[in-house]
Amino acid sequence: MQVGFGITITKMSKLGLWLSGGLLFTLLAANAWAAPEKTSPGQTVDSGSFGVFMNGKRVATETFSIHQSSTGSTITSRFKTEAGPDQAEQSSELQLTAAGELKSYEWKEISPGQSQATVLPGQDFLTERYTDNPAAKPHEQPFLLPASTSVLDDYFFIQREVLAWKYLATSCKQEKGGVNCPLKEKAQLGTLNAHARASALVNIQFSGREKIAVRGVEHELIRLDLKSETSDWTLWLDDQLKVQRIVDSGNTTEVVRD
After folding, report:
1. Which of 4, 89, 126, 234 is the most core-located residue (most Cβ within 10 A)?
2. Is 158 within 8 Å of 94 (Cβ atoms)?
3. 41 preceded by cis ω (within 30°)?
């Protein structure tokens, strides 16, 4: 059920920890998301795992952590399908500067193959180096994208949480006791899918609050809709801005926080 025409987030002390230390783009966060607490020199602001389900059956697990310090943030993730002869495993590490811009991104296929890719910013564009054989010289592909581009890889759903935080930091307004997001107003963000070596624009919008069941328990959560040319996703976040559930437009894939 959608409620009202905006969202007011009142749990500002925890939110301020996430937004003031560099992860959520201090150019806006430090002032626009004012909080009474200060960020410690280094801390983990989110960690845990997501279960990935297809047609109701668990098919994979993503284990993740988000660590931030005064110099920037690191988002690490490991994606592993359920045990079996075709078990697949991948890892990623996304490093952001204190201003929320890309410092580096590394993706690795651990099994069944050994593909890997690294994305680094240059003066005017991003450069991806990739290979299917770690012993071979990597190929190089430039992208005419700024360092502010968000990484949105295929199998790492925690990156959608980081994208949601960026949207909230850049599109919502500060109000006394919280922030207000415009209902149904789309924001367009540039993204890079390093695994697919493709860039895309995505539209993200706040769609109100909804009461939904997560693991059989009803919660009232913040709903964000994320749309691109290739896929549509709905994200639900709690009042601490942690993703609790993600569903694709066809309702065949569901991602739930463990």
Report:
1. 126
2. no
3. no
Residue type at 22 in one-letter notation: G
Burial of 56 (0-12, 13-18, 19+ CB in 10 A): exposed
Question: 33 pLDDT exceeds 80?
Answer: no
- State CA 90 to chain mean position distance: 17
**Phi, psi angles (nearest 5°) of residue 98:** -65, -20
Assigned domain for 171 exists = yes
Which element (helix H / strand E) includes 157? none
6 within domain boundaries = no
Q: Which residues, 6+ apart, have CB-to-CB distance to 162 below 8 Å?
A: 23, 66, 75, 94, 150
Long-range contacts of 129-136 (CB under 8 A, 24+ apart): 130/194, 130/197
d(Cα 188, Cα 226) in Å, to the nearest integer?
10
Give the integer Cα–Cα distance in Å for 96 and 104: 7
Local confidence band at 174 (pLDDT 50, 70, 90 cut-offs) = low
Banded pLDDT at 25 (limits 50, 70, 90): very low
Residue 210 lies in a domain: yes
Quick check: 210 pLDDT over 90?
yes
What amino acid occupies position 136?
A
Residue 97, phi-psi category: left (phi > 0), alpha (psi -120 to 50), beta (remainder): beta
Helices 12-20 and 158-171: angle between axes, nearest 10 degrees: 100
| Count of domains for the chain | 1
Residue 112 contacts residue 95 (beta carbons within 8 Å): no
What domain range is 29 assigned to?
12-257
